[in-house]
Specification:
The chain is an alpha/beta fold. The chain has helices at 5-34, 113-116, 126-136, 161-170, 212-218, 229-235, 238-257, 261-281, 299-315, 345-359; strands spanning 41-42, 48-50, 58-60, 65-70, 80-85, 104-110, 148-153, 179-185, 196-198, 204-206, 221-222, 285-290, 319-321, 335-337, 340-343. A hairpin with a 5-residue loop joins strand 9 and strand 10 (204-206).
Length: 364
């Protein structure tokens, strides 16, 4: 008995759909077994609050203790968590006595998630490790002149140089620091103009123009919310995580390759403004330039960092190129997590040593 044309078509459609589903399931199994795709960091509610400072959209919530939780990195891993605390000012770390006691030299550090130390313990952040080097190394210029060196870590994830300038002008200098260090990450040339809010679940969200920096960062996060069975299946898919990871890399490369002149000028003006503020306060100002954590710096990273280096040189601002600290290191060995390419504790230690020898070591 022959099949009608309609039945043949239906049979062909069912065959194609079945083959497609089998292929997807097979790919899912292969990736799970051969190329395990872990979950990223679980998003933390109330990590941020909106800021009252002009030009500063949001800040870390003060007096807050919580954890960054990362998913397993392999079948044989259980994942890990990082304790986080903020002080009464909303800075990561312990509270500081104000004004600083006699003999204490206090450095204020500006930055984004690289300086905040996303994914690493407080004692392993380059800021903390630099403080240790300044207090313990015999070649420390500052330690021979002062009883103690303290560093304030004011880094906030996805803050850019323009925001950091406004923060320094309105709040940072009120702490009367003895020096200021700017931790500049290469994507700071993309200033963004997003407007922000805290949603009903306590998460920071953009409310108007999309902020690409936060969108890229959000790809790393997993939100623990009530989900349907289908949604839970989708969220657990290693194949989808693999695809989103490739999309994150593509979007990040696209972002860095297409920064505009207006944003670059705003960044340059912010650096000039920081130099003016610190000069008026009679304190030194340093710039540390961070590329992405990778072995070979891409041309677009190299270009924008070269431009900032030229500006610092012309303004006589001491600066250091941080890609030199990671020379000949494999990128994968320096990532916090396969889904989070922030620098790990090893990279932070290399950064701290490079900054110390570049700015604060007399070479004895």
């Amino acid at each position: 008995m022959s099949l009608t044309a309609g039945k043949k078509t239906l049979f062909a459609v069912i065959t194609v759909i079945s083959a497609l589903l089998i292929s997807i399931v097979a790919m899912e199994l292969i990736i799970r077994i051969i190329y395990f795709q872990p979950r990223g960091r679980v998003a933390v509610p109330h990590e941020f609050r909106l800021s009252d400072l002009d030009g500063v959209p949001y800040e870390l919530t003060p007096d807050h203790t919580y954890e960054w939780v990362y998913g397993p990195r392999s079948f044989f891993d259980t994942g890990f968590s990082i304790p986080v605390r903020t002080n009464s000012h909303g800075y990561r770390g312990k509270d500081l006595v104000e004004p600083a006691p006699d003999g204490v030299y206090r450095i204020l550090v500006l930055g984004d998630s690289f300086t905040l130390g996303l994914g690493v313990r407080e004692e392993h952040i380059w800021v903390s490790q630099l403080e240790h080097l300044l207090n313990t190394r015999k070649t420390s210029v500052l330690r021979r002149k002062h009883n103690q060196i303290e560093i304030m870590n004011t880094g906030v994830g996805s803050w850019n140089t323009v925001v950091q300038y406004h923060f320094l002008r309105q709040k940072g200098l009120r702490h009367n620091p003895d020096a200021v260090i700017l931790g500049f990450f290469v994507n700071d040339f993309h200033v963004g103009n997003g407007h922000f809010a805290i949603d009903d679940n306590g998460f920071l969200v953009t409310t108007s123009e999309a902020d690409t920096r936060l969108q890229l960062q959000a790809l790393l996060y997993e939100k623990e919310t009530k989900r349907s069975i289908i949604r839970r299946l989708i969220d657990s898919s290693h194949l989808i995580r693999w695809a989103s990871g490739r999309n994150m890399v593509f979007q990040d490369q696209k972002l860095m390759a297409t920064y505009n002149r207006k944003d670059k000028q705003r960044v340059f003006d912010a650096v000039r403004g920081m130099q003016v503020l610190t000069r008026e306060a009679g304190i030194p100002f340093y710039v540390c330039m961070f590329p992405h954590v990778q072995n070979i710096v891409p041309p677009h990273d190299q270009q924008v960092l070269d431009e900032l280096a030229e500006l610092c040189y012309s303004l006589q601002i001491p600066f250091v190129r941080m890609e030199k600290a990671l020379k000949n290191m494999e990128a994968e060995t320096l990532w916090v997590h396969p889904r989070d390419h922030h620098p790990d504790a090893t990279a932070h230690a290399l950064y701290a040593d490079h900054i110390f020898t570049s700015f604060f070591c007399d070479g004895m």
